[in-house]
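Thread: Newbie trying to understand structure tokens

Hi all, I'm a second-year student working on a class project, and my supervisor (Dr. K.) asked me to get a predicted structure for one chain before our next meeting. I've only ever worked with sequences, so writing a 3D structure as a token string is new to me. If someone could post the tokens and maybe explain what I'm looking at, I'd be very grateful. Here's the chain:
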Amino acid sequence: MTMQQTPLLLSRILGRGAILDPDVEVVTAQAGGTTHRQTLGKTWERANQVAHALKGHGIEVGDRVASFMWNNYRHLELYQGVPSMGVVLHTLNVRLSPTDLEYIINHANDRVIFADEDILPLLEPIWDKVPCVELLVICRHGEGGESSFKNQIDYEDFIKDQPTCYDWPEIDENSPMGLCYTSGTTGKPKGVMYTHRSTYLHTMAGCLTDALGLTALDSLLGIVPMFHAMGWGLPFNASMLGCKHVMPHRFMTPDTFLKLMHDEGVTIATGVPTIWQGVKAAVEAADGKFDLSKLARLTCGGSAPPVSMMRWYWDELGVEMIQGWGMTETNPLGTLSRKCAKYTQQTLSEDEQFENIAKAGLTMPGLEIEIFDEEWNRQPHDGETVGELCIRGPWIAAEYYNDPQPEKFHDGWLVTGDVAKIDKNQYLMIADRSKDLIKSGGEWISSVDLENHIVALPGIAQAAVVAQPHPRWDERPVALVIMADGAELDQQAVLDHCSKIFAKWQLPGFHQIRKDS
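---
Reply by user tm_fold:
Sure, no problem. This is what the structure looks like when written as tokens:
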């Protein structure tokens, strides 16, 4: 007996929640503590209007459309409408420097950019350097942002009077749907192109009970930026299921998160360790002001959270923290670690369960992980032997977009750049990084790129950039410099020099090493 070979296209699942439960709300934080509210049904209709408007502009299947936006209802409309029409959504990281933004916009050949008005100034330095961009669509929130770009239109005018039903095309399931660039390597950012098939499968796997356990009954607070690895895929999960979407927009403060959790009955929220450290402090300071009784679990990625923090959330609030490991190249979910993730471990003590949560976790269904030595021999899973961590599976990148990097891919495996151990229970433990990278607030900083740029400044003989532990950002870069004979360190001059190509959050602190020391 043969089965129907229906292509795995996102247009088949992204409107599902809106069709099954159209009155579920999409809530976005606004200035002054207010919220913008619309239904899932309305969001899906507007996603259809976006598709019509883009088609009217001449955007075709396979073209790239960029978003330069926070987590909000319009960004969700793009997440639903752009891939469904066969167009690639390129999420631009608002934290990148103008130099990197210029490079990735041109490399992706973005034809249209949607941008929130409050961050329009970040695009001003590059407008005369991105000839591929034909149209700027400004998403206004009453803040009066302006742009000098020659061809622009307001979002609401762009979709006004467009039909609310689009005939989604039947395309190959291996067609591209999303593009994210990672700065997790030296040199220029690398593009990771997701396909309909890979994201469809990632969406289904992320909802598994042993994964994030999302259901249609959840109220999801998405704090992880939608411009970072496609928001960990959660906008797709929630759109498929019909979850209530709660979004902080640009108001990324613990008090805003707590108010949204209280007001919107949030059951699950997603973020990095620095976010949850800030929320913990705010909860303690609030002294019972916020009702978090519906909050059941938090997801935490980007870097390993302190076990003491995970225990606090469990002991004080009864909230499970789910730790995950992944990369932009893994779409991004690779492994997840939950408090009691295996049938045979139900009898573990709570201390032993938290020992497992501190690990990077168990492989998602459908994926394989392995550790290799320098000769590509598989290493034992004994919890002691370290090796180069590799991963493969149906949503793992097999190449970079228009940028061959053969050393990153070996015999079907993605070479992650992490050094890791795997224990006898198959838990992954990240031991170190094989590349000189610094992870600050969940974002990668290349120490080699910083070193090369700093040492090019006259008067500096040598420079080394290292990671310094930081209580909030996990790691921060510190530059150690040796000055040339007779030269004196001018920290501000070095910072000004670095700021020409690096974003503010990538800039290092300094320590001068004297030759006679």
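A couple of things are worth pointing out once you decode it. The radius of gyration is 23 Å. The mean pLDDT is 92. Feel free to ask follow-ups in this thread.
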